[in-house]
Amino acid sequence: WYNLRYGVYKYYIYNVKGNENCTYKEVMKKLSSNALSGVKMPDDREGVEVYRYGNMAIKVKNNEIVYICNNKGIGSFERYKFNVDTKYRDYLRKLWRIDDL
User: Fold this and answer.
1) How far apart are alpha carbons 45 and 53 in whole angstroms?
2) What domain of life is recorded for the organism (predicted)?
3) DSSP codes, the chain
4) Given this model, what pLDDT does residue 101 score?
5) pLDDT recorded at residue 69
6) For the segment 55-84, what is each residue's pLDDT rounded down to a tens digit?
7) In degrees rounded to 5, what are phi and psi of residue 76?
């Protein structure tokens, strides 16, 4: 899984519904599985990867999740809502025992 900046962890537990009691490690695993099962978006910046997972944008740099933005309720992001590989996400969550935590 990806490393996770502490500020991203704080944003996630305060801004993503139902995750206010998640530990740092749980969030790291959840966001990693979300990024890897989401849609990779084009980005010209060297060393930066941007993924869309439903309404969430996840930015990865040097194998670390450095930024997320939960765009819930913003109409222009609705088109990404179903662009999630749920089978791969569920496989990663089972492999990393995310739902067992």
Assistant:
1) 20
2) Bacteria
3) --EE-HHHHHHHHHHSTT-TT--HHHHHHHHHHHHHHSEEEP--STTEEEEEETTEEEEEETTEEEEEEE-TT-GGGGGGTT---HHHHHHHHHHTT-TT-
4) 45
5) 92
6) 889 999 999 999 999 877 655 555 555 567
7) -65, -15
Please give the Cα distance from 5 to 76 (Å, whole number): 27
Residues 72 and 79: beta-carbon distance below 8 Å: no
Q: Are strands 56-61 and 48-53 parallel, antiparallel or unpaired?
A: antiparallel
- CATH number of the CATH domain containing 44: 3.30.2310
Does the global pTM surpass 0.90? Answer: no
Residue type, 48: V
Asked if 32 contacts 1 with a C-beta cutoff of 8 angstroms, the reply is yes
Residues spanned by the domain of 48: 3-85
- For residue range 11-49, list pLDDT tens digits in order: 999 998 889 999 999 999 999 999 998 889 888 888 899
Into how many domains does the chain fold?
Answer: 1
